[in-house]
């Protein structure tokens, strides 16, 4: 009881930010205090989603990223043009036109 810490917000973060934030939470967490892991439980699914292909749902290999759309819907190169498992359909990346390789993102995915 008493001081209630503000939960870490989950804004539209890109995978690099999510990766860093999640790592920071792990580093700052108190292993003896289960409450300190709450934020982690919340963030890890977002992190995983941000590194998964929206077509095949597996972790990204050789990822492509929408360059104009800011929706963070990545897909693997062989999945380009495939049917996305997004509901409702995303307006930003619907036609897969602006998907490009993104070195920064590729490096984040490669850390896994
Ligand atoms: Zn895929
Ligand atoms: Zn999208």
Automatic annotation (TrEMBL):
Residues 53-94 form the RING-type domain. Keywords: Metal-binding, Zinc, Zinc-finger. Pfam families: zf-RING_10. It comes from the Eukaryota. This is RING-type domain-containing protein. It comes from Molorchus minor.
């Amino acid at each position: 009881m008493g001081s209630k810490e503000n939960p870490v917000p989950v804004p539209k973060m890109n995978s690099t930010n999510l990766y860093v934030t999640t790592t920071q939470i792990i580093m700052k967490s108190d292993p003896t205090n289960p409450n300190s892991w709450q934020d982690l439980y919340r963030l890890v699914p977002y992190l995983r989603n941000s590194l998964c292909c929206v077509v095949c749902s597996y972790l990204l290999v050789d990822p492509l990223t929408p360059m104009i759309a800011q929706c963070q819907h990545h897909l693997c190169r062989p999945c380009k043009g495939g049917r996305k498992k997004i509901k409702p359909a995303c307006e930003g990346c619907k036609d897969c036109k602006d998907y490009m390789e993104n070195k920064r993102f590729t490096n984040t995915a490669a850390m896994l």
